[in-house]
Amino acid sequence: QLDTSIGYDLNVKRVSYFESGNFGILYSGKYVYFVDDKLNVSKMKDIIVPDRPQNIIQKDSFIYFFGIDPEIGHQVYKVKMKTGAVFTEDIYISKLIIEPNPSHNYILIKDENAINAKFYIYDINGRVIQKGKNTGRINISNLFNGMYIFSLQTKYKIYSGLFIKE
Asked: Which of 38, 52, 55, 157 shows the greatest Cβ crowding within 10 Å of its Cβ?
């Protein structure tokens, strides 16, 4: 859970295909609820976050998480946290060990349970840049230099991480 006593910005960007309005996010079970700037709460029935909270990434002052839209598919969402907002100790963020990081031509995913799992590489705007099945070594030589979000989906969990291509 997010410690909201210090506050967080009410900006949630559905970065994979549009930006809209001011919102906050709440979690209950597998579902995401949005809170608008007038504190109206609405359940986003089309947005299901699988295996919550394993698919949440905190990087600097942003939270990135994945959801599924029935019309568009997997989406990347981005929330900007206010200064001082922190995760409390009861949240677990599944992280991948991605080596080398930064990398030039390939990344290694060192987890035998993740072999043949689906992977997705997103640019920082949430667009899927590359996808496939994990063989343990993933060629990234065709990517431009920059930061990328890596998502690995096993049968039961979604693992996420960031890597830098140099």
From this structure: 55
